[in-house]
Amino acid sequence: MLVASPESQPAPAAVPVDPYTWSTRRKAFVFTVGAIAVANSTLGSALPSGAVSFIAADFGVDDEQLLTLPITCYLIGYILGPVVFGPLSETYGRRPITLWTFAFYTVFTLACALAPTFAALVVFRLFAGIFASSPPAVTGGIYADIFSDPKARGRAMAGYMAATTLGPTMGPIMSGYLSVMGWRWTFWVALIIVGASWPFLLLLPETFGPVLQRKQATTSSSNIANVNAIAAIELTRENWHHLFTRVLARPIKMFCTESIVLFSCLYLSLIYAIFYLFFEAYPIIFEGMYGMTPGECGLMFIPIAVGALLSFIVYLLYDNIYQRAQTQGKRWVEVEEYRRLPLACIGGPLYSATIFWLAWTANPSIHWIVPAIAGVPFGIGFLLIFMALINYLADAYGIFAASALAAASGTRSILGAVLPLATNAMYGRLGVHWATSLLGFLSLLMALIPFAFIRFGRHLRENSKFSQSLKASHTK
């Protein structure tokens, strides 16, 4: 190999290759772009919920099961996307995956606005969901790329989680009121929001370290240090067989072999599915029991959004307690699990309790504001669980956080797509009180998982088969 003389070496890159060393301003911009992409994605998930009756009237559809498809097919797309886009972002970079998928999401949002038939709308929603699944799977990896400090990364992930909740809670309000002018207006306004987001996304820099190192190496390929720096990414770019058997299979492998990923996915899947089931259950409760219009029913999701915002304050309060204890040298902060999981230990019981609150106060003899206010602690509990477990996954798997988060995103979308299909049958047979209570009992059982992680998490991390296989692959 020919090695160039020192005099012939190119000047160092103006922007540091290591995203951990980027300026606070640059990191804040990347955080904002990620939150914008996620907000667009999650807004689309519940977008048709307030427009169902208008869509049914326009296309002459009266089958209640069919009318759940515009939402459930979008969530089915969420199943397919993360297992592809998360791992691909760890091979080809975060920026190209984010831009290409957002471009296709834009196209299929436009297609939904122009759908000529109900079947076409369902198909377009499926493809919109596939490409909208990229930001939730990739953005967590982006934040892990730029924040080395667990405190900063945790706060970024908490803000990211808030964005994932605010999106779907705004969807029913938009569609409930816009559909009065025609249900297509729901998608036209969503397309306007997408268009306003594009200037920010186009400025998103690449954040994945191995890709940045590879690009630097290509401009100074004679620099042996730079050439060696790209070895890790080249291991995942060998051939198509390797791409499908190792890279794209990584989230599935993590789900099957990593106990932390498996049980996190199970818990997140249930609470996520209950959240999306409420988009079908709220009309049964507030339109059926209280005689509200679709727009008024959409407003009942505002308390959940308020709870989501309040959960961020709870997160900051706990984070300050943790940082103070760390400064004082308290022994309990030496346990890694105490950095995140106590939030889920608070959020889990709170989440379950508010489901029972909704179940037994939803009655025409009780003012509608009582079950509606249950959405505030519901939103707090929901986000605390997500903040804790998503951050725990990001901390535990570092550079492969996108694959761990892709596994979580894909699995929760499976239940999120399936469970709402059973809403009408479940509420019809069990009634509002016991159908909702059943969800409360299931969530209460799952609330034990964070406590188990605190007790056994260190052992699980130290004996991680996935971590051992990664070490073996780097030593070959």
Describe the structure.
- By secondary structure, this protein is mainly alpha-helical.
- The chain has one domain: Growth Hormone, Chain: A (Up-down Bundle).
- About 80% of the residues lie in helices and about 0% in strands.
- The longest helix is centred in the middle third of the chain and has 31 residues.
- The two termini are about 20 Å apart.
- This is Major facilitator superfamily protein.
Please supply descriptive tags for the structure shown above.
476 residues, mainly alpha, Growth Hormone, Chain: A, globular, disordered N terminus, disordered C terminus, Major facilitator superfamily protein
- Low-confidence spans: pLDDT under 50, at least 5 residues? 1-13, 224-238, 470-475
Q: What CATH architecture do you see?
A: Up-down Bundle
| Rg (C-alpha, Å) | 23 Å
Q: Helical percent range?
A: over 70%
Roughly what is the average pLDDT, rounded to an integer? 82
Strand content: under 5%
Number of strands: 0
* Coarse morphology: globular
Largest sheet: none
Helix segment tally: 25
* CATH class membership: Mainly Alpha
Order of helices and strands: HHHHHHHHHHHHHHHHHHHHHHHHH
Protein name: Major facilitator superfamily protein
